[in-house]
Amino acid sequence: MNSDLDLNQIGVLQRREIEARILAPVLEALGQAFGKEAVLDITRHTIEQIARNQGRELAEQLGAADLTTFAQGIEPWSQNGALELRILDQTPSQLDFDVTRCKYAELYRSLGIPELGAILSCSRDAAFIEGFNSAIRLERTQTLLGGATHCDFRFSAKS
Asked: 108, 114, 119, 134: least surrounded by Cβ within 10 Å?
Protein backbone atom coordinates (compact mmCIF):
# COMPACT_ATOMS: atom_id res chain seq x y z
CA MET A 1 0.00 0.00 0.00
CA ASN A 2 1.31 3.46 -0.91
CA SER A 3 1.64 5.49 2.29
CA ASP A 4 1.32 8.80 0.39
CA LEU A 5 -2.19 7.88 -0.72
CA ASP A 6 -3.15 7.13 2.88
CA LEU A 7 -1.67 10.44 4.04
CA ASN A 8 -3.55 12.35 1.34
CA GLN A 9 -6.83 11.08 2.80
CA ILE A 10 -6.31 13.30 5.85
CA GLY A 11 -5.20 16.30 3.80
CA VAL A 12 -1.95 18.23 3.71
CA LEU A 13 -3.12 20.93 6.16
CA GLN A 14 -3.95 18.39 8.84
CA ARG A 15 -0.64 16.59 8.19
CA ARG A 16 1.24 19.87 8.65
CA GLU A 17 -0.57 20.48 11.93
CA ILE A 18 0.37 17.03 13.23
CA GLU A 19 3.98 17.53 12.12
CA ALA A 20 4.18 20.97 13.72
CA ARG A 21 2.70 19.85 17.04
CA ILE A 22 5.30 17.08 17.26
CA LEU A 23 8.28 18.93 15.83
CA ALA A 24 7.92 22.27 17.62
CA PRO A 25 8.71 21.00 21.13
CA VAL A 26 11.39 18.63 19.85
CA LEU A 27 13.12 21.40 17.88
CA GLU A 28 12.78 23.78 20.83
CA ALA A 29 14.57 21.28 23.08
CA LEU A 30 17.24 20.58 20.46
CA GLY A 31 17.72 24.32 19.98
CA GLN A 32 18.32 24.79 23.69
CA ALA A 33 20.85 21.97 23.68
CA PHE A 34 22.66 22.66 20.40
CA GLY A 35 21.78 26.22 19.39
CA LYS A 36 18.57 27.40 17.78
CA GLU A 37 20.05 28.57 14.48
CA ALA A 38 21.97 25.33 13.87
CA VAL A 39 18.89 23.24 14.59
CA LEU A 40 16.67 25.38 12.32
CA ASP A 41 19.27 25.25 9.51
CA ILE A 42 19.39 21.45 9.71
CA THR A 43 15.59 21.31 9.82
CA ARG A 44 15.28 23.61 6.79
CA HIS A 45 17.80 21.56 4.81
CA THR A 46 16.03 18.30 5.72
CA ILE A 47 12.55 19.63 4.88
CA GLU A 48 13.81 20.93 1.52
CA GLN A 49 15.31 17.52 0.69
CA ILE A 50 12.03 15.83 1.62
CA ALA A 51 10.21 18.31 -0.66
CA ARG A 52 12.57 17.57 -3.59
CA ASN A 53 11.88 13.87 -3.18
CA GLN A 54 8.14 14.50 -2.99
CA GLY A 55 8.33 16.60 -6.17
CA ARG A 56 10.03 13.73 -8.00
CA GLU A 57 7.43 11.31 -6.67
CA LEU A 58 4.57 13.55 -7.85
CA ALA A 59 6.05 13.76 -11.35
CA GLU A 60 6.28 9.97 -11.41
CA GLN A 61 2.71 9.56 -10.14
CA LEU A 62 1.34 12.03 -12.69
CA GLY A 63 3.40 10.57 -15.52
CA ALA A 64 4.62 14.00 -16.66
CA ALA A 65 6.64 16.89 -15.28
CA ASP A 66 5.49 19.95 -17.20
CA LEU A 67 3.82 23.06 -15.81
CA THR A 68 0.38 22.14 -17.11
CA THR A 69 0.53 18.80 -15.29
CA PHE A 70 1.91 20.49 -12.17
CA ALA A 71 -1.00 22.96 -12.16
CA GLN A 72 -3.44 20.04 -12.31
CA GLY A 73 -1.65 18.34 -9.41
CA ILE A 74 -1.75 21.14 -6.81
CA GLU A 75 -5.23 20.33 -5.51
CA PRO A 76 -4.06 18.41 -2.41
CA TRP A 77 -2.51 21.60 -0.94
CA SER A 78 -5.78 23.49 -1.42
CA GLN A 79 -7.99 20.68 -0.13
CA ASN A 80 -10.79 21.79 2.21
CA GLY A 81 -10.10 25.47 1.50
CA ALA A 82 -6.54 25.33 2.86
CA LEU A 83 -5.45 27.81 0.18
CA GLU A 84 -7.41 30.43 -1.70
CA LEU A 85 -5.77 31.08 -5.06
CA ARG A 86 -6.14 33.77 -7.69
CA ILE A 87 -4.77 32.51 -11.03
CA LEU A 88 -3.12 35.36 -12.93
CA ASP A 89 -1.53 33.59 -15.89
CA GLN A 90 -1.52 29.97 -16.98
CA THR A 91 0.22 28.81 -20.14
CA PRO A 92 2.38 25.78 -20.92
CA SER A 93 5.47 27.82 -19.91
CA GLN A 94 4.08 30.08 -17.17
CA LEU A 95 1.93 29.61 -14.08
CA ASP A 96 1.36 32.72 -11.97
CA PHE A 97 -0.97 32.83 -9.03
CA ASP A 98 -1.41 34.61 -5.75
CA VAL A 99 -2.41 32.88 -2.56
CA THR A 100 -4.82 35.30 -0.92
CA ARG A 101 -5.64 33.14 2.09
CA CYS A 102 -3.46 30.46 3.61
CA LYS A 103 -4.77 28.30 6.42
CA TYR A 104 -1.23 26.94 6.82
CA ALA A 105 -0.03 30.41 7.84
CA GLU A 106 -3.06 30.81 10.09
CA LEU A 107 -2.30 27.45 11.71
CA TYR A 108 1.35 28.26 12.43
CA ARG A 109 0.43 31.66 13.84
CA SER A 110 -2.24 30.10 16.08
CA LEU A 111 0.37 27.64 17.38
CA GLY A 112 2.79 30.52 18.02
CA ILE A 113 5.41 29.16 15.61
CA PRO A 114 5.42 31.32 12.47
CA GLU A 115 9.21 30.95 12.04
CA LEU A 116 8.95 27.17 12.15
CA GLY A 117 5.91 27.32 9.88
CA ALA A 118 7.96 29.11 7.24
CA ILE A 119 10.44 26.22 7.38
CA LEU A 120 7.82 23.47 7.46
CA SER A 121 5.69 24.88 4.64
CA CYS A 122 7.01 27.92 2.76
CA SER A 123 10.57 26.67 2.33
CA ARG A 124 9.26 23.50 0.65
CA ASP A 125 7.91 25.25 -2.43
CA ALA A 126 11.07 25.96 -4.45
CA ALA A 127 12.61 22.61 -3.51
CA PHE A 128 9.40 20.78 -4.43
CA ILE A 129 9.27 22.26 -7.93
CA GLU A 130 13.00 21.59 -8.35
CA GLY A 131 12.35 17.92 -7.63
CA PHE A 132 9.28 17.89 -9.88
CA ASN A 133 11.20 19.38 -12.81
CA SER A 134 14.53 21.19 -12.46
CA ALA A 135 13.77 23.21 -15.61
CA ILE A 136 10.87 24.96 -13.86
CA ARG A 137 11.73 27.95 -11.69
CA LEU A 138 9.73 29.49 -8.88
CA GLU A 139 10.05 33.14 -8.01
CA ARG A 140 8.24 34.23 -4.89
CA THR A 141 9.01 37.57 -3.29
CA GLN A 142 6.56 37.55 -0.40
CA THR A 143 4.38 35.33 1.75
CA LEU A 144 1.36 35.73 3.97
CA LEU A 145 3.30 34.07 6.77
CA GLY A 146 5.96 36.73 6.32
CA GLY A 147 3.34 39.46 6.77
CA ALA A 148 2.47 40.23 3.14
CA THR A 149 -1.07 40.61 1.81
CA HIS A 150 -0.58 37.53 -0.40
CA CYS A 151 1.98 34.97 -1.52
CA ASP A 152 3.12 35.59 -5.10
CA PHE A 153 3.92 32.35 -6.89
CA ARG A 154 5.52 32.79 -10.32
CA PHE A 155 6.50 29.55 -12.02
CA SER A 156 8.27 29.59 -15.38
CA ALA A 157 9.49 26.73 -17.52
CA LYS A 158 12.55 26.99 -19.72
CA SER A 159 11.53 26.69 -23.35
From this structure: 134
Specify the 3-state DSSP secondary structure of 139: strand
Q: Which region, left, alpha or beta, applies to residue 48 given φ > 0 means left and ψ of -120 to 50 means alpha? A: alpha
Question: What confidence tens digit (pLDDT) does each residue in 63-86 have?
Answer: 999 999 999 888 888 888 999 999
pLDDT for 53 equals 97
Q: Give how many domains the chain has, as a whole number.
A: 1
147: DSSP letter: T
Q: For residues 80 and 77, give the distance between their C-alpha atoms in angstroms, rounded to a whole number.
A: 9
Print burial letters for 36-52: b (CB count within 10 Å at least 16), e (below 16): eeebbeebbeebbeebb
Name the burial class of residue 126, with classes exposed (0-12), middle (13-18) and buried (19+) by CB atoms within 10 angstroms of its CB.
middle
**Residue 81 belongs to domain spanning:** 3-157
Which residues, 6 or more positions from 34, have their beta carbon under 8 angstroms from its beta carbon?
Answer: none
CATH code, 150 = 3.30.1380
DSSP per-residue letters across 39-98 = HHHHHHHHHHHHHHHHHHHHHHHHT--SHHHHHHT-HHHHGGGSEEEEEEEEETTEEEEE
